[in-house]
Amino acid sequence: MPNMSMTKNPMPSQDPDVRNKNFKEVALGYTEEQAKDEAARCLNCKNKPCVSGCPVEVNIPAFIAEVAAGNFEEAYQIISLSSSLPAVCGRVCPQESQCEKNCVRGIKGEPVAIGRLERFVADYHMANAKEKAEKPALNGHKAAVIGSGPSGLACAGDLAKKGYEVTIFEALHLAGGVLAYGIPEFRLPKSIVQKEIDGLKDLGVKIDTNVVIGKTISIDELMDEFGFESVFIGSGAGLPRFMNIPGENLNGVYSANEFLTRINLMKAYKEDSKTPIKHPEKTVVVGGGNVAMDAARCAKRLGSDVTIVYRRTQAELPARAEEVEHAMEEGIKFAFLNNPVEVEGDNGWVKSVKCQVMELSDPDESGRRKPVAVEGKYNDIECDCMIMSIGTSPNPLIKSTTEGLDTEKWGGIIADETGLTSRKGVYAGGDAVTGAATVILAMGAGKKAAAAMDAYMQTL
After folding, report:
1. Distance between CA 112 and CA 269 in Å, rounded?
2. Which end of the chain has the smaller Cβ count within 10 Å, N or C?
3. Euclidean distance between CA atoms 119 and 48, whole angstroms
């Protein structure tokens, strides 16, 4: 029988006052009964509007129908036809603005919890699958992938399935890209990321870590000396931006990238860490996106009193509503309509942030209200740690060492809709092209590039 409940099955999770003191995963996942009950809410629409909202076009009604029938492994196999990282996507994709946004059940109630079901199916497979993926026969062609983040992993996975000899080159000592260094353990356990990567290795994908393309080796050398016929650049956007205000060079001021990398990749929060991080008493996080929420929630787990400073109001926060809700539940404060103008210090360390009070203008022609300074009004917020989370851009190393690779003024690599760059045989996708975006959009770009690389190499 269809489940005509107007609301989703709630996601079991840790209590806020417990989870804000540990790095264990917040959401605990559906039970089998909860998953089947939620899946029964799907109307299995013939025109599949949810699929059109998915950047990698997972056959959502088909996998949900299998969940409703209790065929969880069959559901996984359907998802895996389109997605290389279902356990990741089920946890961090913004389903509310993609597949779930188009769900018919969302017209008069809450949409089907597509992301939660994808996570359940992927976790079930990881817990119960005994056989490794079958390694395809090699087709005699070689492809290189730069970066082991979402776009690189998706590209590598699709190429490997077609029989290509694929090598991923990763600058850091651990594969995963932003999945490893950027997204906290309590949102995306690193054991999950490693299992997804292990699945790609089973397909024959090789991963070389500690290789900085543009310094250790160049793209020209990959193609001319090492025999790679095509290259995909999925190096992300890891170059942090700052506000260029007085005091930003004080001790205790971090970019969100550095702070999260030390927490997530280096495990600096652990007592026995070889690269420990100072546990701040009071932290100010500047920004309103998902990265800002991640940084703030990490600082909270270090025992800090945390305030997020954002120059607009809560209505304009770009972060996922779920992440904002979790942050608020965990006791993180928000200072809306405040914009930092100076970082004040004491003996070389940050001690407070001076903020200009803002107000929103009347809507412009696009309907957007801009933050405008309220003359003469300021707030001082005490802190011994400040984290800047106002965006990132692609690292310029690859473009500066690759002749003939066209880029945008802001640093993004120019590529067409297939991922093809100005260099023959060289493709790019994800944040290296668009600037910081979502995991699933990066994966979609990696998949498109893999299809184009396949077509190109088959002509050689």
Report:
1. 37
2. N
3. 20
